[in-house]
Amino acid sequence: MPDPAPCLTDTEEGRRLSAVEAEGWHRWGPYLSERQWGTVREDYSAGGTAWEYLPHDHARSRAYRWGEDGIAGFSDDRQLWCLALALWNGRDPILKERMFGLTNGEGNHGEDVKELWWYLDGTPTHSYMRMLYKYPHAAFPYADLVAENGRRKGQNRPEYEIAETGVFEGGRYHDVTVEYAKAAPDDVLMRVTIVNRGPEAADLHVLPHVFARNTWSWGWESWEPEPPRPLLRLTETGAVEATRGRSPPLRFAALQPAEFLFCENETNARRLFGTPGPAHPKDAINDRVVEGRHDAVNPLAEGTKCAAWTRLTVPAGGVAVLRFRLSPAASPDERDPAAFDAVMARRLAEADAFYAALQRDVTDPDARLVQRQALAGMLWSKQFYHFDVRRWLTGDPAQPAPPEVRRHGRDSDWTHLNNADIVSMPDKWEYPWYAAWDLAFHCVTFALIDPAFAKGQLILLTREWYMHPNGQLPAYEWAFGDVNPPVHAWAALRVYRMDQAMTGRPDRAFLERVFHKLMLNFTWWVNRKDAGDRNVFQGGFLGLDNIGIFDRSAQLPTGGTLDQADGTAWMAMYSLNLMRIALELAVEDPVYEDIATKFFEHFLTIAEAMTHVGGNGTGLWDETDEFYYDVLSLPDGRQVPLRVRSLVGLIPLCAVEVLDDDLAKRFPAFARRARWLLTHRPDLAAQVSRWEEPGRGNRVLLSLLRRHRMKALLRRMLDETEFLSPHGVRSVSKAHEAAPFRFPWDGQTFEVDYEPAESTTAVFGGNSNWRGPIWLPINYLLVEALTEFGRFYGPEFKIECPAGSGHYLTLPEIADELSTRLTRLVLRGPDGRRPVLGDDPLFQDDPHFRDHVPFHEYFHGETGAGLGAAHQTGWTGLLALLLQPRRTVSGGQVPAPPEA
């Protein structure tokens, strides 16, 4: 009888994960940003113009203050030493050291990267990683991309992308695959494989870079003695020795002939500012290779930045393989290509075994390919994020002081924030900074393969060097004080359950640790975002930038306040999540039953307020339209529903929790107090689905929606002429295409219509784009909500899906149907096409493109074509969960690896 297939934790990679803290396998990883230029943390301007202060043209010449960037970058977890790839095709005006893209002001719909690369594989410990970059033979079309997008700016036209420039026609490009494998935790192997896809031979210069992050140009803290300057120097063995402070020295070696070039990772002040500077600055390697200036690099073969330069002529269809190794200097100097490739093969085989265990019940080969690439994108999008806001505002000892106005400008009330950690990024080029609610979704996906990392990330954001003393979680570096939807508790509960499903052990210590901090955050919401103390909330954008008629994060042109259906529903959901966490902790400590009761009461008062808005009679639910709307509370006391049918009105579906029929037995104090509250406060009890509405067994349903309201919302959501597209739920009802919502005020008319792709209205920012596209985070929450409702109502309760079709499904079946439509975005259909790839035959038909899947920020509401950031694996990585079968655990169902 064959041995049973191993479970995930029994694979070699799974065993490494279990021992990762002891053995240091996470110490090295893909922690470089793909764009450090144009970020807030590098911006020292008076006006906060980050894109203009340090543009792409300066990036090759200016030393960064807070981090580093590069192509296919790898570094240690403090980013002291960095490894990245540079290329030159002999035609470009500059060395290709980093990905190029347009700034927010240059792009037709905001910032937009203009390169082609894909993350293809990776393991949680980064023992094996692989990505692919496509580099044209022709000169990179920098000027063309800027000029044509400038001509399209402000027009209802799509962005001009690099594939449209013609540089990939006829296969005239190199496929450059970069692989990393670790022979040991600190022994990093880098293999670069170049394939010439064109019909003629083509030159290519390959220059892996090793460099020290510049920490010495800014002056050391007064209490810290200045350490020795880092040094890279060529040794007699033909390898480069890297020394830095007390860290063990490293050795960087090429396993084939290479010329080593050295310079300093310091600003070229002469080029940028016309002032004296170092003799061999940061861009010296560029000047040596591209301009042929032999004097540009250091003749002493030492510095803080070096490159191993290899010149190749790759024949048509030919392949070249280059190997490099960064290892402890004390280890044997092993440069045998066969032994090198054996390590690579072993780590790849271990990665295959890891994913075979994860995907044992995923039968479709294409689904396995897509899921593995989605998870690879998550793993590649980790980044060392360093930002000390206090020092950023006041300036560095060795540099000129920033403009005084900055002390009262952006993020000036976040001086406690001092980050220097590995953090999951939404996207390392377009969004190379964490965002609080994005990160929550990332963690749920990470929990499928690395729950320890997921738990660590959720805790990290609540630590005192992230969370504000007042309890607010940091939003993102452009405005840490902005407000993101409060989904951290939801994520913590899901990660807890997924971790338990994988390991068989409930980590209540993690849950308790994060719970106490989230109670502070909940209190911040209650005290700061409930303007009238009515349990109705105003959160601003809450991630839905352009979905309403007003900029919800700015002062309203009408005066007054905007009572938000989504903000209030998020708080109802937050209450239920914290209540459920408290009950989980009460399994071992009955004291938490008291806290659970408190959050239960919060939920009921919020539900009551959504119906009556503080007792004034106008609710957020519109009985005529059978939909939730924001309500404009005017200074004269009038309340005006803003009848925009959008995700704002569907989010109340997500505030749902089912308590199992053993509630009274497991939590007698909670059950007793809850019944007392409902008996003595019938006004609260009447606002939610009945406490003991007939359902399967004696389960208890807590929801903002009675059965009637839930069915009414689902009729809208499942109507293909409104929200339901072939590829998921649209952000705005398609009904607004023919009937835009208009609101006249003081001689102006504010309007919302349906736009399936990028919004043509830039009033809320250059890349505000939520007028109709499909967006994964809310879609995923809706799938979960439907599954949870189904646990209560059972198989007898059915809804017509799609609306008007005459086809009735149970709620879990509708959740599956929505999941199928969402995964259809990226899976190959019967016609062989992937909707995400759009209509370009290069991406749909070319065998060297069609199976490399991008994970876009959002998707066209009709066609499913990918839009926005092309590597938004952070939240679109949720597709990996939708492709994973679910397992039943205490409290519901979660996507999880199969058991042994």
UniProtKB/TrEMBL annotation:
SUPFAM superfamilies hit by this protein: Six-hairpin glycosidases
Per UniProt, what is one Pfam family of this protein?
MGH1-like_GH
The organism's place on the tree of life at top rank: Bacteria
Instruction: Tell me where in this chain the Mannosylglycerate hydrolase MGH1-like glycoside hydrolase domain is found.
Output: 431-532, 703-873
Q: What Gene3D superfamilies is this protein classified in?
A: 1.50.10.10
GO BP term, pick one: oligosaccharide metabolic process
Q: Name one GO molecular function term.
A: Glc3Man9GlcNAc2 oligosaccharide glucosidase activity
Q: Report the InterPro entries cross-referenced here.
A: 6-hairpin_glycosidase_sf (IPR008928), 6hp_glycosidase-like_sf (IPR012341), Glycoside_hydrolase_63 (IPR004888), MGH1-like_GH (IPR054491)
Return the protein name.
Answer: Mannosylglycerate hydrolase MGH1-like glycoside hydrolase domain-containing protein
* Naturally occurring in which organism (per UniProt): Methylobacterium frigidaeris
